[in-house]
Design goal:
405 residues; mainly alpha; Farnesyl Diphosphate Synthase; 2 domains; 19 helices; globular
Length: 405
C-alpha cells in the first residue's frame, strides 16, 4: 500500500488511474495510523505521509530510512551497517565542503560587516546544494553552485531590502555590462557585491579551463543578467505601487526565483556536461519552467507575510486575489493546484525523449524537491530555526551511530 502511494506521486496529466490510486492509498494509510502497526511500519507511514520520496531530499530521506529500517525485525545487519558507513563517509566530505565555503563567506566576503542587510544563511545555502547533488563525484559542481547561490542570496537582498530604485538601475546596468570598469559607478557596498560576483565566475572559468569548457560559463553569466533584470522589474512594480496580473507576475517571477540560473550553473561542474545541454537549459524548457513555478508559488505562499513586512513586491497570492477578487484561502488553494500541475509537468518531461541525459534532468527535479522540503510549512530559508536546523543537524552534523558487535 505504501509503495503504491509513493508510485502515485509520479502521476502526469490525463493519468486518472494513478490519481485514483493516490486518493485511495492516502485514505487507507491515514486510517492505518489509528491501528496497531509495528513501530517500523508506523514510523515509515507517518513519515511518508508528511514527505513523499518523490518530493523529498534524496540524501535526507536515505538517513531517515536507515532509522526506520533498523526498527524492521527482519533487517539485514550487514546491509544496515554498510548503509551507515556509506552515510558517515559521505557526510565527512560534505562537512569539509561546507567548511571551506563558510570560510570564504566569513573571511573573504566578510558578509556580516560588508552586507549587514543580507540574510546570513551560508550553511542553509550549502544544505540546499547538497540537495541538488550529494554524490561524491560532483564535489566541483557543489563548490561552484554553493558560491553562486550564496552571492545570489546577497543580490536578492540588495534588490528586495536595501537598494534604492536609482541604485537598482545602476547595479542592473553594471551586471548587464559585466565589466570590472563598471565598479566606478556603484555605491561602496555594491562594489563589494559586484566584484564578488565577477570573481566567482572568473574562478569558475579557471576551474573549467582544464576541461576546455571555460566558454560554457557565458551561459551562466547570461542567466545572471536575466535574473537581475527580473529583480529590476519587480522593484519597479514596488516603486510605482503596481500590482500586475497573475499571468504578468508569473512570467517575471519564474525568472526571479533563480531556478534557471541555478540549473545552468549546476550543469557547469558536471564533468560530462556538453554545450548543447547548456543551450537547452537556457531556452526555458518546460521542466525548468515547471520547477520555477513550484519555487515561486511555494515561496510566495510561505513567505507572503514576512515579505509584506519588509516592503517587498506583491506575490502571486496578492496578484491572484486582486485579479479574481478571491479570498486568501481560496487563492492559496488555486495556487497549490498550479504546483501539483507543475509536478505533473516535471514527471512527464522525465519520461519524454530529450537530448539531455536523466542525470542532468535530475538536477531540475532536485531543485523542485528542495522547495517542497524547505517551503511546505514555512519559509525555512529566511527563518532558519526549527525544522531546517533539524534537517541540517541530521544531514551535516550528526553521524549515524554504529554498534560494532
Amino acid at each position: 500500500m505504501l509503495s503504491l502511494y509513493e508510485a502515485a506521486q509520479l502521476s502526469f496529466h490525463g493519468e486518472e488511474i494513478l490519481q485514483e490510486a493516490y486518493s485511495f492509498t492516502l485514505t487507507q494509510l491515514t486510517e492505518s495510523l489509528t491501528t496497531k502497526l509495528s513501530p517500523f511500519l508506523s514510523g515509515l507511514v507517518h513519515h511518508s505521509l508528511g514527505q513523499s520520496l518523490r518530493k523529498g531530499m534524496p540524501r535526507l530521506e536515505s538517513r531517515y530510512y536507515i532509522s526506520f529500517y533498523q526498527e524492521d525485525p527482519s533487517h539485514d545487519e550487514r546491509l544496515l551497517t554498510f548503509a551507515k558507513l556509506d552515510f558517515n563517509m559521505l557526510q565527512k566530505l560534505h562537512q569539509k565542503e561546507v567548511s571551506n565555503v563558510t570560510k570564504w563567506w566569513v573571511k573573504d566576503l566578510n558578509v556580516s560587516t560588508n552586507f549587514p542587510f543580507a540574510r546570513d544563511r551560508i550553511v542553509e545555502a550549502c544544505f540546499w546544494i547538497v540537495g541538488v547533488y550529494y554524490e561524491p563525484q560532483y564535489f566541483l559542481a557543489r563548490r561552484i553552485l554553493m558560491k553562486v547561490i550564496a552571492i545570489s542570496s546577497i543580490i536578492d537582498d540588495v534588490y528586495d531590502a536595501y537598494a534604492t530604485i536609482d541604485e537598482i538601475e545602476i547595479f542592473t546596468n553594471a551586471i548587464e555590462r559585466w565589466d570590472i570598469s563598471a565598479l566606478i559607478d556603484l555605491p561602496e557596498y555594491m562594489k563589494l557585491c559586484y566584484k564578488a560576483l565577477l570573481d566567482i565566475f572568473e574562478e569558475t572559468e579557471q576551474e573549467l579551463r582544464n576541461q576546455g569548457k571555460e566558454n560554457f560559463v557565458k551561459y551562466a553569466k547570461n542567466e545572471v543578467k536575466r535574473l537581475v533584470q527580473a529583480y529590476r522589474t519587480e522593484s519597479r512594480w514596488f516603486h510605482h505601487n503596481h500590482t500586475p496580473t497573475a499571468e504578468e507576475y508569473m512570467e517575471v517571477a519564474t525568472m526571479s526565483c533563480g531556478f534557471a540560473l541555478l540549473t545552468t550553473v549546476s550543469f557547469l561542474g558536471m564533468e560530462d556536461t556538453a554545450e548543447e545541454f547548456l543551450i537547452w537549459a537556457t531556452s526555458d524548457p518546460k521542466i525548468i519552467v515547471a520547477a520555477s513555478t513550484i519555487s515561486r508559488i511555494m515561496d510566495d505562499i510561505a513567505g507572503s507575510e514576512f515579505e509584506h513586512e519588509r516592503g517587498h513586491v506583491v506575490s502571486s497570492l496578492d496578484c491572484y486575489m486582486k485579479q479574481y477578487n478571491s479570498s486568501k484561502e481560496n487563492g492559496i488553494k488555486e495556487l497549490l493546484k498550479m504546483v501539483e500541475s507543475s509536478w505533473k509537468d516535471i514527471n512527464e518531461e522525465c519520461l519524454n525523449p530529450t537530448q539531455v541525459p536523466m542525470k542532468f534532468l535530475m538536477r531540475v527535479v532536485n531543485l523542485a524537491r528542495m522547495m517542497d522540503v524547505l517551503y511546505k510549512e514555512q519559509d525555512s530559508y529566511t527563518h532558519s530555526g526549527g525544522i531546517l536546523k533539524d534537517y541540517i543537524n541530521t544531514l551535516l552534523v550528526h553521524k549515524v551511530p554504529i554498534q560494532i558487535s
